[in-house]
Amino acid sequence: MNKTYFLRLFVVIFLLSLGGQSFSQDNKYSVYYYRRASLFEKLRVNSNDIVFLGNSITDGAEWNELFDHPNIKNRGISGDITQGILDRLNPIVSGKPAKLFLMIGINDMSRSIGQDTIVDNIAKIIDEFQTKSPDTKIYLQSILPVNDNFTNYKKHAACQKQVPEINKELKKLAAKRKITYIDLFPHFTNETGIQLNEKYTNDGLHLMGDGYLVWVDLIKDYVNE
After folding, report:
1. 184-197 b/e with 16+ CB inside 10 Å = b?
2. Contact 140, 174 (CB under 8 A)
3. I need a labelling partner for 97 at 20 to 30 A (CA). Which of 7, 175, 192, 194 fits?
4. The dihedral sign for the CA sequence 125, 131, 136, 138
5. What's the order of all strands across the beta sheet hosting 72-76?
6. pTM summary value
């Protein structure tokens, strides 16, 4: 083997290493997203399960303990967006769960993703279930209010007035797809009728324990029916 061969081999290895670095930098989502999504690929969903699907607000609850129900499975991922759910949906849909409780969209808004895109992506999520798992009962939950008096999540808080507008479209979508729409929004606002109530949050976006208890009370009949 001559020097030219080794030189070419070195160049190939070098270019491959650059390609690996480029791939890692091109990841669309957070490292947490990929950790959780890879775990969810290994955890089986079956036809007896009730799946809670969404972002950090879903991720932050221990749903099976809150409902004392062993078949409830949490598939929330902090920071997730509508496209992120579409990209990790197959392991859930293929399990053909009994019920799906979906809440997603606030992170899309904080990234200035347009309303039409958000609603369209949620429609695609619903369509995937209705096509591939038609027996799954789908419950589309309204996006919760945020509170711009807090400074922790300024981009999310800036969407305060946009949330009710998106929720109106989600209600229409639910009617069009003939699924249940659960309007959580008004139960979490303060006296303004638009801000997330301070007693349910400590950062203007996420829920404290009392907030989750309100949520549980609002959907318990749907979970148990």
Report:
1. bbebbbeeeebbbb
2. yes
3. 175
4. positive
5. 72-76, 50-54, 99-103, 137-141, 180-182
6. 0.88
- Does residue 220 or residue 26 have the better pLDDT? 220
Q: Which residues contact 100 (CB under 8 A, 6 or more apart)?
A: 50, 51, 53, 92, 129, 136, 137, 138, 139
More confident residue, 22 or 92: 92
Residues in the chain: 225
Question: Parallel, antiparallel, or unpaired for β 72-76 and 137-141?
Answer: unpaired
Whose tokens are 């791939």? That residue is 23
Are 124 and 86 in contact by the 8 Å Cβ rule? The answer is yes
In the chain, the amino acid numbered 181 is Y
**CATH number, domain 29-224:** 3.40.50.1110
pLDDT tens for each residue of 135-166: 999 999 999 999 999 999 999 999 999 999 99
Tokens 């950090």 locate to 56
Rounded to the nearest 5°, which phi and psi values hold at 52?
A: -100, 120
> For residue 204, with 0-12 CB atoms within 10 Å meaning exposed, 13-18 middle and 19 or more buried, which class applies?
buried
- pLDDT score recorded for residue 27: 77
Q: Residue 51 gets which letter from DSSP?
A: E
